[in-house]
Amino acid sequence: MKLNALMDNFGARSSVKRVGRGIGSGMGKTSGRGNKGQKSRSGSRKQATFQGGQMPILRRFPKFGFNNPFAKEYATVNLGDIEKFIASGKIDASAPITIDSLMAAKVINRRKDGLKVLAKGEIKSAVNIVADKWSKSAEAAIVKAGGTIKNK
């Protein structure tokens, strides 16, 4: 094989359709654009969202709300869930309970931006929890059961 002998397969490249080259070509005079109107002019096309001159639907609907791109989303865990997993033996109550141990026990499935402990359910075991955030009632319940909660 020689570099000067390389060529495309037949039909791989088609020539550009030349319009406006006489009536016999089939693409003469108006060049297949029809007569008059916006679509026959050069450089002019309707937008993909154009709706026939009426007010577009995206402009008719009211806009509201705000999505904060910097908001933090925490993986939440309830005290009742922790107690349930301790009772089933998936979490060791004597070791500190961290986001990693909760992921290993499949209590939570994603890290997100940190761990938040909530007070739904009750806890009977004295546990040491390491979290980013917690509710006051969750902290009170953990301390009442003889455990501690601290920031990581």
TrEMBL record:
GO terms for molecular function: rRNA binding; structural constituent of ribosome. NCBIfam families: rplO_bact. Residues 18-52 are annotated as: Disordered. The lineage of its organism: Bacteria, Pseudomonadati, Pseudomonadota, Alphaproteobacteria, Candidatus Enterousia. Part of the 50S ribosomal subunit. Transmembrane segments: none annotated. Pfam families: Ribosomal_L27A. This is Large ribosomal subunit protein uL15. InterPro entries: Ribosomal_uL15, Ribosomal_uL15/eL18, Ribosomal_uL15/eL18_sf, Ribosomal_uL15_bac-type. It comes from Candidatus Enterousia avistercoris. GO terms for cellular component: cytosolic large ribosomal subunit. The gene is rplO.
